[in-house]
Amino acid sequence: MEPHASASPLSQSEFVDRYFMEHRVQVLELAAFLDRLDRARELDAEDDFRLRSLREALAILVDGGGTRVQRVQMTFSDRDTTPLPSLDRQSARGAYDPER
């Protein structure tokens, strides 16, 4: 296989050998979170902005497109560049709520 222009010092096989187990665990943790969510007492968060962002991010991971890190980060980010009148220290929620 021909080397890529901005190649990692590792081959794909070496990369998989080194990092697969760590990422397998992260995927299993995410699957467990989603399973527990499905088994919740009430199914009342289907429209929650955090779950919408998570579903959008998961779709990006499997779409085969490039720049996944940037695109996933942007699903969680507020794209409004208007300065706030004051610092809002209580708003960290892990995803941007466009309705807020």
Task: Describe the structure using short key phrases.
extended; single chain; 100 residues; 50% helix
Brief characterization of the structure:
The protein has 100 residues and is mainly alpha-helical.
Summed up, the domain count is: 2
Low-confidence stretches: none
Q: Mean pLDDT score, rounded?
A: 88
Structural class by helix and strand composition: mainly alpha
Shape: extended
Order of secondary-structure elements: HHH
Radius of gyration: 18 Å
- Give me the count of strands: 0
Largest sheet: none
What is the overall number of helices? 3
The portion of residues forming beta strands comes to under 5%
Distance between the termini: 49 Å
- What percent of residues adopt helix (DSSP H or I)? 40-55%
Describe this structure in words.
With 100 residues, the chain is mainly α. It folds into two domains: 9-44; 45-79 and 94-100. Helices cover 50% and strands 0% of the residues. The protein has three helices and no strands. It has helices spanning 12-38, 49-62, 68-76. Helix 2 runs antiparallel to helix 3 (68-76). The longest helix has 27 residues, at 12-38.
